[in-house]
Write a structure and sequence with these properties.
Helix content of chain B: under 10%
Number of helices of chain B: 0
Shape of chain B: globular
Oligomer: heterodimer
Largest interface: A-B, 25 and 30 residues
Largest sheet of chain B: 6 strands, mixed
Strand content of chain B: over 45%
Distance between the termini of chain B: 41 Å
Largest sheet of chain A: 7 strands, mixed
Structural class of chain A: mainly beta
Order of helices and strands of chain B: EEEEEEEEEEE
Radius of gyration of chain A: 13 Å
Distance between the termini of chain A: 36 Å
Shape of chain A: globular
Chain lengths: 114, 113
């Protein structure tokens, strides 16, 4: 059972480039999330989805986009990368909303924008 | 929106001692409070959680207490071991609040031999 899988694990981008962080889960969870983690700042919610075809903004959505065409996949798109987007990104999923159940995190993707 | 403050940011204890991490939240409607542990270079993992209808919950060496009146909750680790060294995050959410889990800024716990 793979759980939540993120790719790539590491990536260096130049300012203005675009890229997609991939996230897939095999637990048939309806809820999926993208967080970013900056040193000393905890985990900030970027976007989340409560099911296929439904997405919504979190605390820090600017500069990002998401889609949820299937239950399994929840890619995060960065358009026009900026140094402020240098961070570690975590995808997560849960069987129910996070206020009632455990979040299962992927291993993280470390992104550096130069 | 919800704001969660966590203290201390770093904590160093001797092996066998107890460790306490404290969090406060701003929204009195919050009713679910999980704690996640993140080892160096690893993903966060849930270690314990508590809902607002109880004041304390224990699981072996870890316990969480909740004071709804004061809007704060704490993680207690007894008989600390080197493998307890990690970053611990508290979080809070409101049932029906758009599924938004708000995290604290984390506590780096170091258990020294």
């Amino acid at each position: 059972n793979a759980g939540v899988t993120q790719t790539p694990k590491f990536r260096i981008l130049k300012i203005g480039q675009s890229m997609t962080l991939q996230c897939t889960q095999d637990m048939n969870h309806n809820y999926m999330y993208w967080y970013r983690q900056d040193p000393g700042m905890g985990l900030k919610l970027i976007y989340y989805s409560v099911g296929a075809g439904i997405t919504d903004k979190g605390e820090v959505p600017n500069g990002y986009n998401v889609s949820r065409s299937t239950t399994e996949d929840f890619p995060l798109r960065l358009e026009l990368a900026a140094p402020s987007q240098t961070s570690v990104y975590f995808c997560a999923s849960s069987a129910v909303g996070p206020n009632t159940g455990e979040l299962f995190f992927g291993e993280g993707s470390r992104l550096t924008v130069l | 929106g919800e704001n969660v403050e966590q203290h201390p940011s770093t904590l160093s204890v001797q092996e066998g001692d107890s460790a306490v991490i404290k969090c406060t939240y701003s929204d009195s409607a919050s009713n679910y409070f999980p704690w996640y542990k993140q080892e160096l270079g690893k993903r966060p993992q849930l270690i314990i959680d508590i809902r607002s209808n109880v004041g304390e919950k224990k699981d072996q060496r870890i316990a969480v207490t909740l004071n709804k009146t004061a809007k704060h909750f704490s993680l207690h680790i007894t008989e600390t071991q080197p493998e307890d060294s990690a970053v611990y995050f508290c979080a809070a959410s409101i049932e029906g609040g758009g599924n938004k889990l708000t995290f604290g800024t984390g506590t780096q716990l170091k258990v020294e031999l």
